[in-house]
Amino acid sequence: MRIAERIKENAGRPGQCRPVTIGFLGDSVTQGCFELYSTGADSLETEFCSFQAYHSKLKRMLEEVFPSVPINIINAGVSGDNAPNGRRRLQRDILSFGPDLVVVCFGLNDAGRGMEGIADYAQALEGIFQDLQAAGTEVIFMTPNMMGTRAVAEEKDPFIHSVLEAMTKLQVDGTMDTYMEKAREVCAANKVPVCDCYRKWKKLEESGADVTRLLANRVNHPMEKMHWLFAASLFERMLFDDM
């Protein structure tokens, strides 16, 4: 990938090249949301810890391996966001900073619209990819994590429990799987590399892992340590895509 060449160029000429800039366009997982808690009878809030999110971990990995290369991160994750809105703010939040690479990750909130929303999801992803390509910006689509597969019994708050049940249904009835298949199709049609973390989460489940327990909010926010899976997968996709 071109990003590997940018890093190599910077490492070979310390201080003579502009810093490497990587943008991240996504939802609450990208923003750095973790725990879920109730703020009223029908309202929720999350714990925000962006420094624990996967892009911060990826930055740390890159800086460990390439200590002389300055790495800038643009965190354009927005809690509750989806692909159509991500495209609307692409210029303002990402392209205006002139990134070398943009990692796009949407699907968790888009799937909440059910199967009737899949065409809008696909159209928005294609628009994002085409806008980035037109700007000459390299792009990776990263599939998100799985959602929870059951509403945990110990959750006593009725509103949170109802949210858990609704999101769980999208995972177990195949809606989320269908969205991810559509995303892969759009990526193939637009020649966009995929960092398929969703497939890795599915493999974990097939291996016997309790994926619901790997979510900090039991719904769709991975626990902090699972963000290392995203970071390591992106690191590999960026630097070893020919292996």
What is the H level of CATH, i.e. the homologous superfamily? SGNH hydrolase
Query: What's the rounded overall pLDDT mean?
Result: 93
What percent of residues are in strands? 15-25%
Termini separation comes to: 12 Å
Protein structure class: alpha/beta
CATH class: Alpha Beta
Backbone CA Rg? 18 Å
Q: So, CATH architecture?
A: 3-Layer(aba) Sandwich
Number of helices: 10
Element order, helices and strands? Answer: HEHEEHEHHEHEHHEHH
What is the number of E strands? 7
Biggest sheet strand line-up: 4-1-5-6-7
Largest sheet: 5 strands, parallel
Oligomer: single chain
**Which regions are unreliable across 5 or more consecutive residues at pLDDT < 50?**
none
Instruction: Indicate how many domains the architecture comprises.
Output: 1
Sum up the overall morphology in one term: globular
**CATH fold category name:** Rossmann fold
Helical content class = 40-55%
Characteristics:
243 residues, alpha/beta, Rossmann fold, 5-stranded parallel β-sheet, two-stranded antiparallel sheet, 44% helix, 17% strand
